[in-house]
Design goal:
Layout: E1 6-13, H1 18-32, H2 39-56, E2 62-69, E3 73-80, H3 95-102, E4 105-111, E5 114-122, H4 179-184
Length: 185
């Protein structure tokens, strides 16, 4: 069953102090959408995009973070008012090179007021985790009673004999007097 499309948008200043808070918000949304495995790469990618806005557009520059999950693709985008389009300048390990490494696809496009940078990851539909913990396996008892002889299979038409019911091991109980002996005392 494909989940309904999920969407989250927040407008914020791209300050260095806000990045950890936004990471926690993104993680909370992904947990709510049952996408726990996507938390580390998505949070890292969003933090990279917000840091780039802070570095290249300006401290406290306004931007809009958007998360979308279609049931098969999870997309994060950051729109800002910076006039310059971002470029992949090399595989130095940061910026768009890091976004490319974390995603299945990414891109950037100009808008009337600035630009949008986005990245997408393919994800499987979330499966609901069991609410109750699994029932622990029962252990083998330390004391095992004598094995019963196996009965040969009954011939067709013959009635089968039910084996005697097994008794659970427990404390030995001394037999009491029979009813006839109790009346003699």
């Amino acid at each position: 069953m494909t989940p309904p499309h999920r969407h989250y948008t927040v407008e914020l200043p791209a300050s260095a102090e806000r990045v950890p808070q936004i990471r926690r918000i993104v993680a909370a949304h992904l947990r709510y959408w049952h996408l726990e495995l996507e938390i580390p790469p998505m949070c890292e990618g969003v933090a990279e995009l917000l840091t780039n806005v802070h570095r290249h557009v300006g401290p406290d520059a306004p931007c809009v973070l958007e998360l979308r999950w279609s049931g098969s693709h999870l997309t994060a985008s950051v729109a800002d008012e910076g006039p310059r389009l971002a470029r992949l300048e090399g595989a130095a390990g940061g910026g768009l090179a890091r976004i490319a490494a974390l995603s299945d696809s990414w891109g950037t496009c100009g808008t009337p007021t600035g630009k949008v940078i986005w990245f997408t990851r393919r994800v499987e539909a979330a499966r609901a985790a069991p609410v109750d913990p699994p029932v622990p396996l029962r252990s083998v008892p330390d004391v095992v009673g004598p094995a019963t002889a196996a009965q040969p299979p009954a011939a067709e038409g013959e009635p089968t004999a039910d084996p005697a019911p097994a008794t659970a091991p427990g404390p030995a109980v001394a037999p009491g007097p029979s009813p006839s002996e109790a009346s003699l005392v």
